[in-house]
Amino acid sequence: MKKNNLCSEIAYMSLNHDGEQLCGDHVEIVENENSTIVVLADGLGSGVKASILSTLTSTIISTMLAAGLDIRDAVETIADTLPICSERKTAFSTFTIIRLEDNAHADIIQYENPNVILIRNGEQYEFPLSTMKIGEKTIYRSSFELADGDMFIALSDGMLYASDNGVLNSSWDRDAIAKFMEPLSESGLTSNVLANLLMEETNKLYGGKPFDDATTCIVKIRQRQTVNIAIGPPENISDNHRMMALFFAKEGKHIVCGGTTSKIAAEYLHTTVQTEYTSPDPDIPPISHVQGIDLVTEGIITVDRILAYSKDYVKDNRSFEKWCYKKDGASLAARILFEDATDINMFIGHAANPAHDGLPINFNVKMQILKQLSNNLQKMGKRVKIHDF
What is the rounded distance in angstroms from the CA atom of residue 51 to the CA atom of residue 53? Predict the structure, then answer.
């Protein structure tokens, strides 16, 4: 298959049935070298039983498909493995499968979940459906080529007809969700933020008390973008030139954090550092400017704030409004790392900073902060590569 520079950005969120500790929906993602398999399963009922059913269903399907087995084998295995529901006479949860090949081709397989929404060029795009029979079950299948900017929205049935009075709200159907998401699809927002916005709207319609488990999974197809970030000078001063040569040789955006590091970078570029006098956030030191660098910030205080934002991002992204629009160094860096980047090269210098002697921000703390930040970026789906100096 022809290679491309596309990647898939995937995020999902769930609301639990009011009063339940566990969600009856489950999303499983399996990535191989050339394929990505996403399974959203909706277990029958709610609570513990539904959670077990959906978890087993999504895990079995994703594992078998990733191993190259046919969907028929996967469905028959589920039917033979899971217990039969005495009320509905069926053995497993409903499910949606999105299988991406080289981020250029999609196979969509659906069983009794709301049909996947595809938004292309800012508008809902109805892709063709075919049917197949597995036992007494009708499975819908679709297969088509992907385009840059395509956005899939997979839904469990609790996402539809949300209301705050227990009566189904017919105005919040699949088409209404598509209309809600169409203008957002071209906003440049990440899948994580888009899932948050859709879930907040659904939860608001439920009055904060969903009468069903509700889950959405958003898959965006986008161009890969590399971001390079240099933090701290090398342990050996003789490596300054080598570190900067490798750093600036990388394509993509460049961020430099730290006063000493920015001076080394400016010297390599044969220019100077121009530091602003004030910061929009009094707790974050001012940014600087170096011709040839996209963003220059202070060091560990700024990076520690980026780490705090990253922790929140991989949890529920409640701090989104704090960093999405602000102009301080931590917010600017967070937008580039969280929103723009798909691939991140971290150039980490291991020189101890004499200014930190006797302070709680010592070398080991700095390394822990950077390790946690790297882990959180990977949880966001970023490809992170560490370069130590």
Answer: 6
